[in-house]
Amino acid sequence: MRMYPYWADTRLLGNLLCGYWPNWHSFSKTLDLPTTPYILPATFVALVVMFMVWRMQRVEWERTCRALKQATELKVRLERERNQAQAEIFRRLHEDSELNKEKFQFQAQLAEYEKYSTLAQLALGAAHGINNPLLGILSHLELELKTVQDPDQRWEIEQCIAGTKRIAATLRGLVNYARPGPLVLSSLSLHRLVTDTLSFLEGQPALRGKRAENHVPEDLPHILVDSNQLSQVLMNLLINAAEATPDGGCIAIASNKLGADNLEIRVSDTGCGISPEILPHVFEPFFTTKHGRGTGLGLSISATYVRRNKGEIKIDSVLNHGTTVTITLPIRQEESHKTKDKNRDHAEVVV
Length: 351
Prior knowledge:
- The chain has about 350 residues and is α+β, with helices and mostly antiparallel strands.
- Helix content is about 60%, strand content about 15%.
- The N and C termini lie far apart (about 105 Å).
């Protein structure tokens, strides 16, 4: 059956050869050769067989070439599909990894917020229960100090008053951290705010013998923030920088515009710096390296105020070389809070 398509070619070849048969037959009779009648049929059969074999081999070769081409195309298509499948798998694995990372971050933030919420409730309860008796103790000690003449007794009473005031400051810090006041937004000049803050702190003992420099450009656009909270943040950062800077050191405040929507504020010092082991904990409540002189709430409250004003705060420090605190604030916030004096070009600084 496979040879059936070649019968037409075979018949054509046969007719072609048979056209010469009469001439060959007469020629063979003339020569009177006994084997002559068998030569032509044998030749004809041999040619037919050779032609059919050649045609079969050619068709088989073409079929093999087509099959090879189809196999090559199938291989290329399967490799392409395999590569696409691998790329899709890698993409989904990367997405799953990113989602898991974000999940862990959200869980860590949630745990931190829960810890801070519990701390806030404890702080408010402690402040309410301790503050009133503490004010009575402080008033009694101050009255006692006025009547005592003995230097040793006066020194003891002064130490008690200092400790009582330190407790009161800690309670105020707890209340401010746990329940900040309402946000009052106003448009203000950052250069003026920094100038007024430095002027207010100029007489503080921590700044004596150190240079405080204002590098904030006057032509920066006004920002919409709570001026009291931002002023408190700057004071906390400046006092921390001053306490870490030796005499003759420099404390500088600089600022620049980031894109069209943000401002960056940098408070730098040439002090002792912060070790890498301590740096991750500086924003934690009650964490302090100033044992006996600090409450550990200054940076925590500052970070809370910055976040309430839709900003970010970070610290970069090199041990024995200095520290830089960077605050990023939006120039214009969404006015979801009640603003005060919207139409004023400058805000008064309350320090």
